[in-house]
Give the backbone structure.
Amino acid sequence: MSSTHNYKGILYLTLLLVILPVAVWNFSIKKTVTKWQSYREESKELAEIESRDYSGLQTTPELQEELISSGGFIKAIAAVADKNGIMIEKYTPFVTYHTEGIQVNSAELLMAGNYIPLVRMIDHIENNMTTCKLVSVNFNGTEDRRTGIIKLTATIVVQQLTDLKNTSTI
């Protein structure tokens, strides 16, 4: 008999006891365990957030004004847009979500200008307009067929959460 035939049983036993569990772990159980660990971490974090006391938080006088539907948002950024050479082409306010106590007001703002001033304007909205949150920014370049100049536009969507019971912005 050959020497490999004598060790065939040990080879099969090694495959069964070592290689098979490693393969099963890698191809099926590993993802399940990872997702279960992630679920446990997120549920602990959620429980911690739910246990926090938010009763001491109050709105500041700055947050009392609803900016998007009243036009205050466009007035607040118009001076910065003029200073940076940005042209505001379109401003469309609309209500995204409304329940008995809370309303989410959104606005779509279409601005045209050079890239760096548009980025400065986005930075100004993010950092100085504390009651409005930037949701989406989309840059689009279109070529004017007559002149051949590329016109850069930025479509910006901002949202503001309004507490209708206290008529304040959150």
Summary: Residues 139 and 154 are 4 Å apart (CA to CA). The longest helix spans residues 8-51.
